[in-house]
Write a structure and sequence with these properties.
Elements (H helix, E strand, L loop, with lengths): L5 H17 L4 H11 L5 H7 L6 H30 L24 H15 L3 E2 L5 E3 H4 L29 E3 L5 H9 L5 E10 L11 E12 L3 H16 L5 E6 L4 E10 L18 E10 L1 H6 L7 E9 H9 L12 H4 L3
Parallel strand pairs: 1-4
Antiparallel strand pairs: 2-3, 4-5, 5-9, 6-7, 7-8, 8-9
Bound molecules: 3,4-dihydroxyphenylalanine.
Length: 348
Amino acid sequence: MSEATPLDMIKTSLDQAKQRLELAQDSDDLEAWRLEVLGRQGSVTAMMRGIGELPPEIRKEFGKQVNLARKQLESAYEDATANINTGNHSSDALDATLPGTPTLRGGLHPITVVRRQILDVFTRLGFTTVEGPEVEQDSYNFGKLRIPADHPARDMWDTFWLNEQNSDEKLLLRTHTSPMQIRYMEDHPTPPIRIAVPGRCYRYEATDATHEWMLEQVELLAIDKGITLANLKGTLQEWARQMFGAKRKIMMRHSYFPFVEPGVEVAIDCFKCDGSERDCGICRGSGWLELLGAGMVHPDIIRDAGYDPTIYTGFAAGMGVERIAMVLQGVTDIRHYHSNRFSFLSQF
Ligand code: DAH
């Protein structure tokens, strides 16, 4: 076997140095290795110094190879340093005293929170929660609620019409949750009925701080023997107290909705200023805050449902969840709720 040449020696010590570098566990190990290999007393430097003792014909090639080896080792050293600093390599890189990376916690949407609050109160008052379709038939959204085609009352609800898939009847995105009154009565031949119906509704209208094209409502329907306007008032009074505080009063003023008679608009007294502040953000100085529509179910609707209107009466109410949420949460623009901005949503 021939003796190892000086060039072979370079290769051997390059391999060995690389192997030892891989064993380095922390920055102390790395520094020791650096001094031993690349430092002034290191093995690479020693090889450079030894050039003069070599036969002249191989000096040039030897010098070139040592330089190449040094470059490789320097870059291996840099990689090892980077690895150790980012904790890829060493158990030592875990510093348990550093603050952790915070985990982002999810939460309920502010509208979900208020919808649940509303339904919780009605559940305690004995109402069962049911849901209905968002794609609705013309007849349920309007006709059966005594809003025939061409009736001016239709203008109260700007409508998103859908393609006429079945030519029998036009489909639409429901403009309110009231159609579920009809659907539920049709499915339940005998009262009593006490339901709360949450759900999304859609309006084909321009948006501004108080109008959105999509909104949530909660509808109420109670049908039984001997239900009167006093039951409606008592139910909403108790609901208002549980939602807005034990001192709340409600006021009912006459209003028109085709499916109730009489129809009312319900307001609560201002929980912020009692009407004493002219520029109150809640009531604008009026002392009252309009919250919802309600009324006694029209006798025609009771009859159409197959109930005897001389025996059964009932009340209905419909409220917008966003409107109530805005009041409770101090939100001044309804469009914030569904804009999906984290900076808004993370406040709740
Ligand atoms: N559905 C009505 C609307 O969206 C609100 C309403 C008014 C519902 C009176 C009722 C009611 O049940 O009795 O404008």
